[in-house]
Amino acid sequence: MEALKSCYGDGSSDSDSESVPSAPTSPPSAVFTSLPPPPISLLDPSTFLDLQIGQATRVRSFPHVDGNYALHIYIPINISSPSKKELSAFLRKVSSREPNLNAVDVDVPLNVLCQNDEKLEQVALGREFHISLGRTVPIRVHQIDSVVSMLKQKLQIQRQFWIDFNKWEVFVNDDHTRTFISVEVVQGGLIEITKQIEAVNTVYRLHNLPEFYKDPRPHISLAWALGDISHSLKKVVDEEMKFAVGKSFEKSIFSCKFKGIECKIGKKAYAICKIPDGQ
């Protein structure tokens, strides 16, 4: 079991923003005071990722069970430098009206990052984002090989296509503990991604795992807030879209090429399919 833990990580933990470890507990006699966010000069993406920053608190989307490992299958997305500038400008406007937003994954308050354009682009938009193709769910050790093998069988033959993120949208997780500001795929790439989700559902179904949402809406999330603030955040996003100058949101907010599908189980990553460069 110790060998398995060293390979896949400790139980059902998962570093992706969809499923995160519970906050550590401490002895009853210990008293801790939350620290304020660090100075913007300290937010170096190469060194700050392990810091516990600010008041943000997240909980695991499913309970920890020893011997379970979180499964997440996704399309990796990287945002180009020109697109980062446009996205950061919009996030800055939204953050000025909704101060409780945090950058996804690194959990730095967005209004702290907005103090410096370079840090906002590097920290909030410089990471790899994911379009989920299935729910993040716990699986047992004996299911791992079968799940990975079937995913490769169903998805290894793919062609390159363009993914267009056309719409700013607000989403809430299933238990209404977090709200996300996201960019959604509603045109280019939607048909291809929907077919990939259907293939993943087939594999999940064969392993008695819960399938994806009935009407999937492919997207990547850029920022999040505690609780369900979808009504107020949606109002802010819609108003800022109307106020935006020189940008038609009927067209793509940004686009990127589909380059492959990856699967993460615990801490171990698998390449399900990869499109060769230049294809």
Notes on the structure:
By secondary structure, the chain is α+β, with helices and mostly antiparallel strands. Helices cover 29% and strands 22% of the residues. It has 7 helices and 11 strands. It has helices spanning 2-8, 81-97, 110-113, 117-125, 144-155, 190-206, 230-243, and strands at residues 68-77, 102-103, 129-132, 137-140, 162-165, 167-172, 178-184, 219-226, 254-257, 260-265, 268-274. Strands 1, 3, 4, 10 and 11 form a 5-stranded antiparallel beta sheet that branches. α5 packs antiparallel against α6. The chain is globular, with a radius of gyration of 19 Å. The model is unreliable at 12-32 and 45-59 (pLDDT under 50).
The chain-level structural class is: alpha+beta
| Proportion of helical residues | 25-40%
Distance between the termini: 42 Å
Please write the string of helix (H) and strand (E) elements: HEHEHHEEHEEEHEHEEE
- Biggest sheet, open or closed, and with what strands and sense? 5 strands, antiparallel
